[in-house]
Amino acid sequence: MKTTSITLVGIFLIGIFIIIIILGIYLIALYNRLVRLRQIVRNAWSQIDVQLKRRHDLIPNLVETVKGYAAHERTVLESVIEARSKATRATTPADAIKAEGELSSALARLFAVVESYPNLKADQNFRMLQEELTSTENRVAFARQAYNDSVLQLNTEVQSFPAVLFAKMLGFNQEPFFETPAEQKEPPKVQF
Q1: What is the DSSP-derived secondary structure letter of residue 92?
Q2: Kind and range of the H or E element at 13?
Q3: How many CB atoms lie within 10 A of CB 3?
């Protein structure tokens, strides 16, 4: 009888040991997968950051060009400059996403004002800057899509069972999507 109980205890301990090893292997694999996904998200954000820097560098030149034609549109020009300043000071992706939304709205208002100035629209320097900014906006949109795809993968993994049980404990949280703010979804109103 003693031999049977020792054998059962031994089998039970071996079973527990095997479960611990399997759980350990799973946690290592989960951690490595989450690290890879987080690095993909960070890389995608850095691609957005590069395009936003390019955008921020173009805006002062655009504002200066518009200023020569539309000096009395001071509030619109100041809102663009202020929004750019906020965007360049953003330190986290969430702050940058919010600030870039404000900057995009300010730029939309600026381009709505530009519609009132045919001479400005015909200015070669302005057209060149506008084309550069449009090209940059397209690059930002592409980088934003890549970032959102990466965030989707990471967030799905973090929220999926059984990873949801361990992700927070391993230091992994959901990342914010780079979404279009509500005010940008409405077309700018142009009044003459």
Answers
A1: S
A2: helix 2-69
A3: 7
- 48-52 contacts at long range (C-beta below 8 A, 24 or more positions apart): 48/96, 48/140, 48/143, 48/144, 48/147, 48/178, 49/96, 50/143, 51/136, 51/139, 51/140, 51/143, 52/87, 52/96, 52/100, 52/140
Three-state SS at 46: helix
pLDDT at 133 over 70: yes
In the chain, domain spans: 2-185
Instruction: Report the predicted TM-score, pTM, of the whole model to 2 decimal places.
Output: 0.73
Q: Which long-range contacts (CB under 8 A, 24 or more apart) does 23-28 make?
A: 26/162, 27/166, 27/170
pLDDT value at position 125?
79
* CATH architecture, domain 2-185: Up-down Bundle (1.20)
Report how far apart, in Å, the C-alpha atoms of 160 and of each of 91, 101, 166 are. Answer: 29, 30, 10
* 41-96 tens-digit pLDDT: 999 999 998 998 988 888 888 888 887 777 667 788 888 889 999 999 998 888 88
Q: Cα(86)–Cα(20) distance, rounded to whole angstroms?
A: 50
Residue 190, pLDDT above cutoff 50: no
Residue 70: φ, ψ to 5°: -125, 55
- What is the residue type of 14? I
DSSP reduced 3-state for 123: coil
